[in-house]
Design brief:
Arc Repressor Mutant, subunit A; alpha+beta; DNA-binding; 238 residues; seven-stranded mixed sheet; Nucleoside Triphosphate Pyrophosphohydrolase; three-stranded antiparallel sheet
Chain lengths: 238, 238
DNA sequence: TATACTTAATGTATATTATACAATAAGTAT
DNA sequence: ATACTTATTGTATAATATACATTAAGTATA
């Protein structure tokens, strides 16, 4: 008799990045817990339904939260350790939430991006939905802390090949400084403003506008916008 | 009543790369099929056992085949479509192989690397194990052709961050030309031999030996070897 | 033994890209 | 008027990437 093969539930969990000032954030949901200790924040996710693949499940989760129809999503890693479900409180919550006995659960982790100013949907199955700075995440259930940690590296790879994703984090009109701070947040390093500006000019898909900041107590910065048509013709990163 | 959640079997499948002359190969196994059509080649893989995570299962599969204890492995993507198991012949084979009714199966795909000259183990559950050039793969069951296709891109990412993996594909002693042809196979482009040689010299972890080819009908090329100690001190790619 | 044949080995000039660095501009606040 | 804050911009240098052809070292054969 051979060892038992693994038959398991499969979920998706989404790390949704947002950006404000000079800081990356991620979207966390507060689960409707049993006897909750602390705030019980976790990554948004769901078990996968029978007719879905993982991409579709992740899309469903994010569409519920953000209302965005064309979300950019990237699968980045599956977390499969049997120890994921070793915390009894986590397992209790799972069975409470899904009305099913769940012994083992693996998850397919996704990354996505969202303008942090976007109005989020009220989803009945959660108490709250909130943006949390990635430098100050609470302790989360399962391996969600580890998932976020590994996801940032993946965002870097993603930016290299598809810099378009940066503009899903910025407002429609943004300043050179905002773009630079975004790079600095993602790569966790400083960029010289002059050199950065030169590279930005080379990115033809970033168009300068004849609009400037208003109501700032210093010289007003010029606004730029991302031009998807030019971008699709020729992709260039920094 | 909500939709049924997915409870499923989970497998791992491994794309093992090998290199010879100027061509990348991948290791395929011939399944002990029922009434086999054609050769029934597929990627080596296995269902995941209960106490394992996916890394451990992939390691087990490859260790069985190659006998290598410290395999370098990289998880690269999970394939989760419900359509994976839409071919009845594939499903029949699964149930024949695993003595279990399998309706849905997702797989976590891995990449690994192996010297193509290595003597492979005879694994009883397969008829044959063979290296197949990645440009001329047979039609394989499930989505294995798609998995191989996507894996080559991942190898490129891997080389960028960890060039050490290249030397798992080459013999212990290799010539400059062999290394160049390996780069050319992976990136599917030509490299100028002079410029390539310059970059190779900058890689301090590649040591020139005082040994040269023998029994070749032209000028004998110098051999080089990879030095892990130097590599671990300072990683540099091409 | 001369000649052809094959692949190995190598340097220089140029273009591109990355980096280091500081002064002036445009506005607000006092 | 002066101080304060952030925006904007150029030049010089270093590092890296690219383009390109000749000589070296051996084998094969006429």
């Amino acid at each position: 008799m051979h060892l038992a093969f693994m038959k398991t539930y499969v979920s998706v969990d989404c790390v949704v990045f947002g950006f404000n000032k000079n800081q990356l954030y991620t979207l966390l949901v507060q689960r409707n817990s049993l006897g909750s200790r602390g705030k019980d924040l976790k990554l948004p996710g769901s078990l996968i339904y029978q007719p879905e693949d993982a991409d579709e499940a992740a899309y469903r989760v994010l569409n519920e939260l953000t209302g965005i129809r064309k979300m950019t999503l990237r699968q980045f890693k599956s977390f499969t350790s049997p120890k994921r479900t070793s915390d009894t409180e986590d397992v209790n919550w799972l069975e409470f939430a899904y009305h099913d006995k769940i012994e083992r659960l693996i998850t397919v982790a996704y990354i996505s991006l969202c303008k942090i100013t976007r109005k989020l949907n009220v989803v009945s199955k959660y108490k709250t939905v909130e943006w949390c700075p990635i430098d100050h995440l609470p302790k989360m259930p399962f391996d969600h802390n580890q998932i976020v940690e590994e996801s940032l590296k993946e965002v870097r790879n993603w930016v290299e090949t598809e810099p378009v994703i940066l503009f899903e984090l910025l407002p429609t009109k943004f300043t050179a400084t905002e773009l630079r701070l975004l790079y600095e947040a993602i790569y966790n390093r400083k960029y010289d403003a002059r050199n950065f500006h030169k590279k930005m000019v080379q990115m033809e898909y970033i168009l300068p506008l004849d609009e400037y900041q208003e109501n700032v107590k210093h010289r007003a910065a010029r606004y730029y916008k991302f031009d998807r048509v030019t971008y699709n013709k020729r992709k260039i990163g920094i």
